[in-house]
Amino acid sequence: MIWTIIGILLLVWLLGFLFEFAGGLIHILLVIALIVFIVKMIRK
């Protein structure tokens, strides 16, 4: 589940760079996803 969310966020983040839409929001969501991923990996 987490891999799917990370993949979608990365795809949308790259599209944000290409088309420059909602850039700030995409970056914030990507950072949040990265933090959640790191926390889950540490807790395993």
UniProtKB/TrEMBL annotation:
InterPro entries: Lmo0937-like (IPR043727). The keyword Transmembrane helix applies. Keywords: Membrane, Transmembrane, Transmembrane helix. It comes from the Bacteria. It holds the Pfam family DUF5670. The chain crosses the membrane at residues 6-39. NCBIfam families: lmo0937_fam_TM. This is Lmo0937 family membrane protein.
